[in-house]
Amino acid sequence: MATCSLISTRFHSPSSSLFRSSTIKPTTTIHLSKTLHLHTPNLFLLRLPSPKLTIPLLPKLSIPKPLLLLCTSLALSFTLLVSNADSAAAFVVTSPRKLQSDELATVRLFQENTPSVVYITNLAVKQDAFTLDVLEVPQGSGSGFVWDKDGHIVTNYHVIRGASDLKVTLADQSTYDAKVVGFDQDKDVAVLRVEAPSDKLRPIPIGVSADLLVGQKVYAIGNPFGLDHTLTTGVISGLRREISSAATGRPIQDVIQTDAAINPGNSGGPLLDSSGNLIGINTAIYSPSGASSGVGFSIPVDTVNGIVDQLVKFGKVTRPILGIKFAPDQSVEQLGVSGVLVLDAPANGPAGKAGLQSTKRDSYGRLILGDIITSVNDKKVTNGSDLYRILDQCKVGEKVIVEVLRGDHKEKIPVILEPKPDES
């Protein structure tokens, strides 16, 4: 409710109160109170000096009370109008938008990290069926982020897969052609490079994912559905999850699960902690409909860091392999055994050189099972994921002891791991 403080007036006259007698002396001096306060919510505060008004009147006139009040009111109004405007301090107080401290922190985080997030367009060569003209048409899009001042951009491999040409749009809407520096299909990570001025490139702060906790806040920035930068928030729902690479099916360990909305187009964008540091790359969602269902997955930054370093330096990731093809886990389960069934062990591969046997058929067409790997370096292997997980902890050139079930007996075979062949 608006509050208005009344004007206090003091009348100096030999007679008593003005309102008790209709007869006043020839001169009446009216002193206004020092300050006139007019308060209304969020409007203005008007301060006026304390003027002294002297009203000459005719001697000993009998004036009706209503008329006297009217004259006094008119005199006061006139005084306010003719007062010196320069001495009046009038200002308008606007009510600012009030945000909570956590809201301010979120707004600041988005504003500070948006310049590091880019939009990636995947172009593919298509031939028109009628004119036979060869055209480049967008076949997909995704997000990425600036890794360093040299123009390296990090994203998911599935964002750039099958592209004949790539375009990267920075936060200021400038677009540049991008070249593929390297990629790791097994971990779904790719590195691009753009020839952009260094002053337009703002690397994202790199954090640590080893000390993350379930329940802490996370923030995902990306370009879903080709829109401008958007921010979604949530918490870490789970840690040390495992998903399969969309390209090779190889498991990706220690994945971060979050309920922050990750929609198509968010892939390759950063997942940030409350300090604005990178803790993961948004890579996948679990949803039958293809839209965000509150279950998203991000590759941890500790995994990404080592991969990006190798891709920037060597253009590829050196990862050890056994050099085998193995049967689906369901097929081995039907046999009533636990392990990895070797379907093929090429003679020029590490397993073939060591003497592992492949699955084959005899002259009558009967299936002869190959070796079934049950452990590596005394670590139990029950399925393909276990085998990959053990190999990820090994190095190229390392000798491992592979225990296999061959027929009705077990054998231990030493195998020297070799690097994965180059991929085009």
Automatic annotation (TrEMBL):
Just give the chief location class.
plastid
Keywords associated with the record: Chloroplast, Hydrolase, Plastid, Protease, Serine protease, Transit peptide
Protein localization? Plastid, Chloroplast
* Gene Ontology terms for molecular function: serine-type endopeptidase activity
- What biological processes does GO assign it? photosystem II repair; proteolysis
Pfam families in the record:
PDZ_2 (PF13180), Trypsin_2 (PF13365)
The record, for PANTHER family, names: PDZ DOMAIN-CONTAINING PROTEIN, PEPTIDASE S12
Q: Which family does it belong to?
A: Belongs to the peptidase S1C family.
Q: What is this protein called?
A: PDZ domain-containing protein
